[in-house]
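Look over this entry.
=====
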Amino acid sequence: MRKRIAIKVFYDGTHFHGFQRQPNGLSVENLLLEALSREGLIDDFKSARWSYASRTDKGVSALGQVVAFDVDKTTNITLSRVNRHILPSACLWAMAVVEEDFHPRHHALLRIYRYVVPLILYERMNFSALKEAASTLSNVDDYTWVVKPPKWRSGRVNLTIKIEAQEQLLVLEFKARSFYRYLIRRLVTLLLWVGEGRMDISKLKMMLRKGLTFKQGIPPAPPEGLILWDVIYPHVYFKVDLSAVSAMLKCLNSLTYRTLFYGSALYQVKSGLKGFLSPSSFSSSI
């Protein structure tokens, strides 16, 4: 008999060439599969029906990535045993037993990403214009002027954007069921252009209204500022491993921040984790 397990994963994306398996092995997925194999939890990822919620690019971190796989029904999983193989670059920190057909990508109701901006780089930020731009760029009928979606999908994304200033950080939160590659980071660029005054909000609205595109293109914002914050599922209840959270925070506190965007993102992750040191469980929401 088998049971299906879902696990929440933190990883520091600056250590990897992305989440998905790579020939050179420098990916989050390679690291996790190797660690789970060393603990005897997965022999073959195909037979274990290994799956995950989201692909993230090189440099993008995660607090709430979700992976799922099958194990023997009698297997007891101790996250700390797996974590000794993957800390400080990654950490498994919450777990749930899920339905046999659970798929972390297909069954996700909502994905939440946060992009963290160090305000020291943007001292003239106009927050009123920034919030108006966020409202303007939410739930646009067609995002093909920002990114080119796969041929089998339209450019429609039911996307909402929330802006919040936290101490010396600007947190841009993006919520949708799914995202196209580079969509968030290019929208961040547009938002910062408006906030800095490099683009007038009226011009942005006019371009959207007329369906115009940017001839020079929209460069994506640096990946180090982006975090896969959470993935929401119906009726899935993750139990937090408080010892894993404590170990993860200890590792994060010892890191040297190589860039301002990287340091800002990890500061946001630490702030999110500290909230779990009192509760013992939560429904799949950070």
